[in-house]
Amino acid sequence: MPTRVEAGIVDALTEVVGAAAMSTGDDVGDDYTHDEALTAHPHRPLAVVRPADTAEVARVVQLAADAGVALTARGSGTGLSGACIPTEGGIVVSFERMNEILEIDLENHVAVVQPGVTLDQLDQATGAHGLVYPVFPGESSASLGGNVATNAGGMRAVKYGVTRHQVLGLEAVLGTGEVIRTGGKFVKATTGYDLTQLVVGSEGTLALVTEATLKLYPRPAHAATVLAPFATLADVTAAVPKIVASGIGPLLVEYLDVITMDAIARGHGVELGVDPAIKEQATAYLVVVLEDRHENRLEEDTAELATLLGDLGALDVYVLPSAAGAKLIEAREKAFWTAKAAGADDIIDMVVPRASIPRYMAAVAQLAQERASLVVGCGHAGDGNVHLSVFQKDQAARHDLIHDIFAAGMQLGGAISGEHGIGTEKKVYVAELEDPVKLTLMRRIKAAFDPAGILNPGTIFDPEDFDGEERT
Amino acid sequence: MPTRVEAGIVDALTEVVGAAAMSTGDDVGDDYTHDEALTAHPHRPLAVVRPADTAEVARVVQLAADAGVALTARGSGTGLSGACIPTEGGIVVSFERMNEILEIDLENHVAVVQPGVTLDQLDQATGAHGLVYPVFPGESSASLGGNVATNAGGMRAVKYGVTRHQVLGLEAVLGTGEVIRTGGKFVKATTGYDLTQLVVGSEGTLALVTEATLKLYPRPAHAATVLAPFATLADVTAAVPKIVASGIGPLLVEYLDVITMDAIARGHGVELGVDPAIKEQATAYLVVVLEDRHENRLEEDTAELATLLGDLGALDVYVLPSAAGAKLIEAREKAFWTAKAAGADDIIDMVVPRASIPRYMAAVAQLAQERASLVVGCGHAGDGNVHLSVFQKDQAARHDLIHDIFAAGMQLGGAISGEHGIGTEKKVYVAELEDPVKLTLMRRIKAAFDPAGILNPGTIFDPEDFDGEERT
Questions:
Q1: Alpha carbon of B268: minimum distance to chain A alpha carbons (Å)
Q2: Which of A183, A382, A446, B93 could anchor a disulfide with A169, C-beta 3.0 to 4.6 Å?
Q3: For an interface test with B, which of A155, A185, A190 has the most B Cβ atoms less than 10 Å from its Cβ?
């Protein structure tokens, strides 16, 4: 039975969005109770509201602020850190009805989208104009609103950067219910603080994004996928900075350890044509994709890359036929599902300076061995973003191992997450390892946006006076 | 005569930095009292401190916070908006002694610099390794600390972005004297709020930057400068989006009106070899620079660009000999000095969506005519950043004209400054034209970083309870 306060807020929200756009109690589908984080527990919200426009979002936030009820924004629910799992008794604001591409501006090369637009939807719309929105985080059903909230990355970051680098402007609702517009259809401005970049990656804790202006690029016509097996993981990771430094300008530079490569190749029926004798010796693979608007330049660059890879100790170099190349990249994008299917207990995506990957991976290997755990992975080597699957059933042992893996990366100048975000699932490590001065500053920034503390509380960090029940 | 409070803080600061690193009274050189803003009045600070390291900066800030004395950070003093002019009775923190390039990291392609390092100094150091820090705001004596504070731009933004896009990490001292480190040697992280991007462009109001980690790029070996005269300014600005969209990837795309072109060509003795008959018809010029690591690709792209410019209505197309090209670009970089020498009363650098430049320039021309004022200029057309020199001696009339010029750009989705910043000189327009909700939010953010309100108060916006004497 809902309490009187709960019934009051539900009635008030229903008045705003209409009964058809509101679910409560058993009508709330299970989908709304979780995301894809391996470690998180589902939570049932008091209600799910599906606003139709910014004005409705603003009224929902005002009502929640007045009632002191927590709000959690939700796009497609494909996140990996628990950031869109509601608090018990809180409200989910689902953007599924705000799913319109408002504009593809061919002169300024920007798209203006509502938060519920999916990457797939945007890719089809931009492709029709020979343009591309270059963030491919591996799950094309993800929403742009979710991507903005988590600063989603993906394999192409080494060339194009991540979501942060594409977001030129936002419309967003503060925790007070006030609506602001930031930035615009331009790449630069120095007109007060950059509120756009502050909201990007804030995981729904500062504002609810109701519109985003995104940078588009010409879609190059030609691409080539180059696969290079190496004898050791250290050889692969040592080669990466030299490839990035060469000036060839790769679209992506991925490494895969042999366990991960075998799992994704088997799982997705990818046949790469690697010579069996070479396969025998290989313990790690490098995948590099190049793209260009001129086919002859692509061929030249591919040849230059192949030579360079040979010089850097590759056992062999394969330029994959385009179907096999595309299949490998697609399978690599699904590495999370492969890890999940293999029974991984947690996944992490630490970022370190790219030249420090060899030292970091050595430290990880040693920690895994000391703790009798299995840690395998792959990563966006070009930008130092290492994706690791951790196999360790014991929760306390796993916590200690992951803590030490993060600490090792931070000693090398790294950060806990490159693109998955902190959410609810990694905040314990942030609390343990981050500078308390920065955490206090972030709490004060949150209070500036959200004085009532209703926007996704308990995500990234707990409120300072937190003494209640954990969400996870 | 200093008051007792003033004498107390001066003594305390002297104890921190040493007498040799401290100037007071008449010992304060005139240079410390102004920047290059045309409209600002110099202010004499109580003292100038020249700290040697971060620890000294932190102690200086603590002392100032305790005493409630205003601090203004200063690099080379080349800013154009008054942001480094001290408050009367405040303290200048000059970073001239913290001028060391701490590291050029060849594997991660980053430079780690102290704030007093100049662009020229960094360019020499990176050039020795075939790398480049790609922000050239037109004044190579500018300091990196100042560039970070103002989010400095320049002509190459259309290819590389501006300072914001190069700053990967910072060390900074908050208004409390606490020291934080943000980001690192990587292009992406989603580990809490992006404090780096918040501090970039905050014009010394949130924190004092004591170290910056900056992205470097391979320095392409080959460049070509293409000059195209056009019959009308509207033709030039209409051509720009099509050049950017072509995929050729220009390094810079600049327009100059004929008055500005004549002034800078005459002022710098640049001989461009434009046919006199063409010159007669031209009222505006487009300058495009291409660069590549392969000479043959540069030649191909230059030919493609020349054809495109012809199709877009250029009266003629000139590929300049490299000495003349370099001289033109250098002269264009000094356009501010040309405007100053010509007696401009103010300069502005509004940014609008690049496809809106023709409409914006038409609106500006009409406003100038209505107000019997002269407004001429040039601009970073590729990124919608329009630099205008305003000739109107009457201060009230000039204010109204500039207000309306900003309002016209904001109606097109623009922002008041693309790269010069707001400082003290444009804050009146921000107060008049910006959303008060955003200004209130910015004030709350400032309070989060600087609870005592001592960091460059009165820059970007006045404190909410401001009722004292204006700095300008």
A1: 29
A2: A183
A3: A190
